[in-house]
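CHAIN AND CONFORMATION:

***
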Amino acid sequence: MKNYKSFFKITFSLLAAIIFVACEGEEESISLTPGSGLMISGPDDILTYSSNRYFVRGHDINEEYTWSISGDGVATVTEEEGRSGEYVRVFVEDEGSYTLTVENNEGLVGSYEINVRDVDEFIGVGQDTLYISEEEYQAGSDTLLVPVTISERNIDSTAIEFEIIDGTAVQGIDYEVLNTDNVLRFSPGQTEAYVRILTNDNMTIDGVRDFRIVLGEILTTGEKSSAVEHAPDSLEIGQSVIYIQDDTKTVNLSVEFEEVEVNEAGNYFIEVALNRAVSEDVTIEYTIDGLPLLSDADKTDGSVTIYAGNTSEEIVLDIDPDWLEEGEEPTVLEIQLEEVISNDEEVTLGSVTEFTIVAGPAE
C-alpha cells in the first residue's frame, strides 16, 4: 500500500506539471525531479554585494520549503513574496565558499555550493597625462572634463577629495577649476565623475606649462568588500598631469604650387591666410626679389594687414605688359614672407612662406 501511494503521488505530480505548465509561464514551469533529495538551480559563481536568484526544482505548492545559507562570512537568503518558497534571493557580503540549503516538510533536503568572489573597486584618474591648448577649453564653448573612475563597480555612495597642485601653470592665470569644492561624489552604481577645467587664452608666448590633479582621502564608501579603495601605487593612477600649450596661430601663403607661370598683364593676387581669426590686427611683412629697377608692380608695398576677426588678406602685384613682350626674358619674382607684427605674440609664420612667379610671353 505504501508503494502504491508513492506511485500515485508521483504520477499525479507529473500530470499536474503537464496541465499547469502553460498557466504558470516559462519562468514558473514545474520540473519534478523524483529522488531522495531536492535540487537547486542558480549561478555557482557570484560576486559579493550582488543579489542573485535561486529556485528549487520540482517545486510543489502543497509543500513548505525552508532555506538557509552558511559559509565563510555574512550571507542572507530571502524568499520572494508570493512564490511559496520556490524562489529566493541570496546576498553575500564576504568572499569565500558558501552552501545554500533548502528543506521541505516531507523531509527532503538539497544543497548547492556557491563560490563568492570580490572585484577590485579601485579609484583613479582616467588619464595620467594630457596635453591641451590654451584655446581648446574656453568659457561658453567647451570644458575640459578630466575623468576620475572607479573600476568594476560602485555599490554605495562614494566621495573622494582631490587637490590641484600648480606647476608652471598657475590656477587663476592659466586655468580655472569649475568644481564647487574639491570633492567628487559618486552615486551608487556611478563609476565616473569629472574635474572640470577651463583654460585662459592669452597673447603671450609662455611655453608648455603644467599642473597636477592629485586624488586624496576617500571620504565615504561602502563597507568591507564593497568599499572603494585607492589603486596600488604600482598602477600610478593617483594623479593626472595636465600640460597647457600656447595657442599658436600661423600665417601662410595660400598657394597650390611653389611656382606659377603668368603670361597675362594686370593685377595678380596672392592670398596670405591666418589659420584662425584673432582679436588683434596681424601685419605680415614680405619681400619680392627680382623686381626690375624702379618698378612699382608691388601694389601692397611689402606688407599686408589681416584685421581682427578676419583670416586673410592679399598681396597684389601688377604684371607689367612689357614683361610679356615677345622675345623678352621671363621676369622671375620670388616672394618671401618675412615677419609677423601683432600684439598677439602667439601668431607666427607657418611653413608655406615662399612663392615664385615667372612672368613672360606665352610660348
Observations:
- The first strand starts at residue 39 and ends at 41.
